[in-house]
Specification:
Residues 2-225 form the Putative nitroreductase TM1586 domain. It comes from Bifidobacterium amazonense. InterPro entries: Nitroreductase-like (IPR000415), TM1586_NiRdase (IPR029478). This is Nitroreductase. With 233 residues, the chain is of the alpha/beta class. It has two domains: 3-137, NADH Oxidase (3-Layer(aba) Sandwich); 151-232, NADH Oxidase. Helices cover 31% and strands 18% of the residues. It contains six helices and eight strands; from the N terminus they run ααββαββαβαββαβ. It has helices at residues 3-9, 23-40, 85-102, 151-154, 168-177, 210-225, and strands spanning 45-48, 69-76, 106-110, 128-137, 155-157, 189-193, 199-204, 231-232. The protein has a four-stranded antiparallel beta sheet with strand order 1-2-4-3, with helices on one face. Strands 5-6-7-8 form a four-stranded mixed beta sheet. Helix 1 (3-9) crosses helix 3 (85-102). The protein is globular.
């Protein structure tokens, strides 16, 4: 499965089996985590525990069962960074989630509370936060496709331009963004093609964890549109 197929195949799951993750798959995940940390300036950790890899932390919504592996999306708020921590966690976390799906695993995004009072599975420095985590493993049953907003609500063309006249790469990006997971399935983000026909402005709209959702959607848009076709505003 390639990364594009993984976007279509990825559906959120919260209930996992006892089946272990293959050692070769774990090696690839560890390499992907190291790459994400280097590219995103993050401190992501791959966490394992046979009882609860979330360390006993309650989830913001949704009940998870038998989470033995998770990706803890840890990083620092950096005033000099072009993209804030929540958005970076979304972007690079989804990159890892799609990598996991392409390796035959199932995933589920979660926002955890009380992450500083867990069962000792990770350490947060004084200037670090953990915006989200991703459960990994083998699902007890396949996940279901989530609802997607229509492309007319996710994208626009600056000025009086019609979305129907937008270039094909922009529409491919919006279609990929339709597959992006978000809190409560609301997809609170929007992409606008600026008047030069090549620059795209991405913005988070009002909603739960909207900056995380924007980071996820930006990755999907890039994968759908193609990196060489456009530039971000």
């Amino acid at each position: 499965m390639n990364i594009f197929e993984a976007m279509e195949a990825r559906h959120a799951v919260r209930d996992f089996t006892d089946q272990p993750i293959d050692g070769a798959v774990l090696d690839k995940l560890r390499a992907a985590v190291a790459e994400a940390n280097a590219d995103g300036g993050l401190d992501i950790r791959l966490v394992h525990d046979d009882a609860d890899a979330f360390g006993g932390c309650p989830t913001h919504y949704g009940r998870f069962k038998n989470v033995r592996w998770c990706v803890a999306l840890v990083g620092r708020d950096d005033a000099d960074a072009d993209v804030d921590l929540d958005e970076r966690a979304g972007y690079f976390g989804e990159r890892l989630a799609l990598t996991a799906v392409s390796l035959g695993l199932d995933t589920g995004w979660a926002v955890l509370h009380e992450v500083a009072e867990h069962n000792g599975f990770w350490r947060l420095e004084d200037d670090e936060r953990m915006p989200a985590a991703i459960a990994l493993g083998h699902a007890t049953r396949p996940g279901r496709p989530h609802r997607s907003r229509p492309v007319e609500e996710l994208g626009a063309v600056e000025g009086d331009g019609a979305l129907a006249d937008a270039p094909e790469w922009f529409m491919r990006g919006l279609q990929a963004a339709q597959l992006a997971p978000s809190a409560l399935g609301k997809q609170p983000f929007r992409f606008t093609l600026l008047s030069d026909g090549r620059t795209v402005h991405a913005e988070a709209l009002e909603g739960v964890q909207s900056d995380i959702g924007l980071g996820i959607a930006r990755l999907h848009f890039e994968l759908g549109a193609g990196h060489t076709e456009f530039v971000w505003a």
